[in-house]
Amino acid sequence: MWSKSRMIPLLLVLLLVALLSVTPALAGPKGNGHRANGGATTATMAVQPNPVAAWGAEYTVSGTGFQAGTPVSIVLSEPFCCSFFTVTADANGNIWLRSTTGQPGTYKIEAYQRPNGKRLTLMATTGFSVVEP
Were both Cys, which of 14, 22, 59, 119 would link to 52 (CB 3.0–4.6 Å)? Predict the structure, then answer.
C-alpha cells in the first residue's frame, strides 16, 4: 500500500509529464530535434551503452545542438514509471547526464527547451533498450 507521502510526489511527476506531453503536440510534429528556420535538425541525443543491462547498470546520455547556457528539461520514460529533471547546456550547447537502469524494457528520453524564451519545445528525443543481465 502506498502512503500519502509517496503518492503525492508520484502524482506531481505524472501531472508534469502529462503537461509536457501536450505542449509538443501543440507546437508541431515530433522528431529527433527541432528545425531552426525550417532548416536541419539542431539538437540530437545518444545513449551509451545501448543496449544496457537492467537492475542498476550505469548509462550516459549525451546531446549536442541545444541553446547554450540554458536549462534543458529532461523527461525519462521507463517501462512502468517516469522522471523529470533539468540539466543546463554548456557554452557549446552540449548536455550530458548519467543514470542507472531499473527493470528491462524500452526507455525513452525527451529533451525540451524554451528557444528564445518562448514556448517549451521538444528539441531531441532518443530511446534505448534495457535488457536482462
Answer: 59
